[in-house]
Amino acid sequence: xxxxxxxxxxxxxxxxxxxxxxxxxxxxxxxxxxxxxxxxxxxxxxxxxxxxxxxxxxxxxxxxxxxxxxxxxxxxxxxxxxxxxxxxxxxxxxxxxxxxxxxxxxxxxxxxxxxxxxxxxxxxxxxxxxxxxxxxxxxxxxxxxxxxxxxxxxxxxxxxxxxxxxxxxxxxxxxxxxxxxxxxxxxxxxxxxxxxxxxxxxxxxxxxxxxxxxxxxxxxxxxxxxxxxxxxxxxxxxxxxxxxxxxxxxxxxxxxxxxxxxxxxxxxx
Length: 269
Ligand code: ARG
What we know:
three-stranded mixed sheet; alpha/beta; binds arginine; 12 strands; 8 helices
């Protein structure tokens, strides 16, 4: 995670961002600390990377890349506004003993924002940020074919804004953010797929993190919370509105350091 000490809306690179809609810094920091405390209380160990003054979106660490065992595969950000983050994240991983493996330019891809593991498979979203062709490199580096999902709604421009894998064949998704073929692919892979309403999707209900059997998500997603409880999950709601101003919520603020561990053997089980 990255404490949002220099978090601001300096530019507009997704439909949520409005420069006029300034971040309330104290409130954003309090919300971020609330999330961190919620995760820590659930047993998650949090490592911190320092935000640069010139990288206001760096607090959204999910986009840094993906961590596969001892390897770090850094993102190639689509927008120049975020490209300065690449060096900062890579430095952190180098300092912490990771081997860096890059996805060759010029293909854009944005890390765990668009590439998520679930139940032994890997799901990859493309179109708005990650390019289809970049996923060839990802497949090679992971030693397996990702399930490629085409995104359709610019509000849900990263896969983690419209899909949350929750283990055991379960997941949350916002169907209309995907093409019909991709919705079908998701239904084939997840025996239990909870469809989120547009209202809750717009409150980033799918941008959730699973810690044990607890789903951590933004406040105000009542229907989704009820559906999750019906499926046996515990739920922790934590306010994220200062981050939704930039088009992110719980999951965007977290990069999972152990999520891809099982793919470290390059496809070997
Ligand atoms: N303002 C950031 C951007 O547009 C938000 C990133 C949200 N991250 C995510 N994993 N969905 O790039």
